[in-house]
Amino acid sequence: MGPCSAERREQVLETARQLREECGSIPFIYRAGAWKPRTSPYTFQGAGSEALKWLTEAKSVYGFDVATEVATPEHVREALEAGIDYLWIGARTSANPIAVQGIVESLTLSIERSRLDESGKLKGVLIKNPVNNDAELWIGNIERLEKTGIPVMAVHRGCNHQPCWAMAHAVHLAKPNIPLLIDPSHMSGDAEKIAGLVQKAHELGFDGAMVEVHHKPEEALSDAKQQITPRKIREVLLEEPTSHQLISNLPTTVSESTAKELSWLRAEIDELDDQLWATIAARMDVSKRIGEWKKAHGIAPLQPERYREIKEKLKIKNEKLKIGGSTLSEAFMMNVWELIHEESLRQQES
Ligand code: PEP
Ligand code: MN
């Protein structure tokens, strides 16, 4: 827990003080980014090396371990020299195996050096999922890091402000001994969604959470909409978890770990349903634009030739849709498509 960015010494220390006051009984690592991978060059890029001092000051005043993000071998060297306890590799860096390998090599060198001079005792490295939905790449990064012998944790932060439960599930199955954390802040981009996502992760058996916390979220220089106050995170973490209704109604013969399997599968289904609705809604948007075009050119919404053409295409697709053990019948596909098409016409006419 901690701010997206270490912005100023006072902000790092004040957020730390409030976290210690609110969450003193909850074990946590204090996080803040010194080097920020921002989309635009015109936004705050992080305070850089200077911020490491603020983090280690917070550590010595309040006594918790501290973490920061590294994206280059030089960041690793500086962070370890400063005495940072945990490092995390962000989603953009995680998408680039050459960058991850560079970090791994820098870690290996630093570990060899620290054996000689007793400084820079790193406690662990957290690796976020890549920005793209790629379980294999995430697993590959974990394996690169495992070679260093440093404890590794995986952080599911989703893609495009959506969870990717199937990817997290695949990583969890492939690496059952790697602690899996959720980052509900980057996963949603929305402070209002943090509590629900933490609850969901709890149901799935996640081992912890990395949450962005700022003493004044509305004034944050990065990710202001997704940061919450130390008081709020305390409420979220201390809230009694409520089990999913259907899960709690399962027969008593079903063990907790078997029930978790069902929770993971349901999470995957929910994610796919969300994608289905988003795709259908996006299709309606394009359809409306087509409707406007037709209106402007005096053409009726229903064009029989186009209608027949799409139905023919569906028949061909049907033969090819024997993917991954499921075959979609032509009747089913036609029914679904007819419903979508009808709604499309209604929206074009409205
Ligand atoms: C962060 O944790 O501040 C961050 C930049 O996250 P991500 O790499 O997940 O975008
Ligand atoms: Mn952030």
List the keywords.
binds phosphoenolpyruvate, 350 residues, alpha/beta, 7-stranded parallel beta sheet, TIM Barrel, elongated, two-stranded antiparallel sheet, 2 domains, Chorismate Mutase Domain, subunit A, 55% helix, 8% strand, binds manganese (II) ion, 14 helices
Structure characterization notes:
This protein has helices spanning 9-23, 50-62, 73-82, 91-94, 97-117, 135-146, 165-174, 184-188, 194-203, 230-238, 245-248, 256-296, 304-320, 330-349; strands spanning 30-31, 66-69, 86-89, 124-128, 152-156, 180-182, 208-209, 322-323, 326-327. It is of the alpha/beta class and 350 residues long. Strands 1-2-3-4-5-6-7 form a 7-stranded parallel beta sheet. The protein has a two-stranded antiparallel sheet with strand order 8-9. Helix 1 packs parallel to helix 2 (50-62) and helix 12 (256-296) packs across helix 14 (330-349). The protein is elongated, with a radius of gyration of 24 Å. It starts with 8 loop residues before the first helix and ends with a helix. The model has no long low-confidence stretch (mean pLDDT 92). The protein binds phosphoenolpyruvate and manganese (II) ion. Manganese (II) ion binds at residues 4, 186, 212, 222-223. The site of manganese (II) ion has 5 residues, from loops.
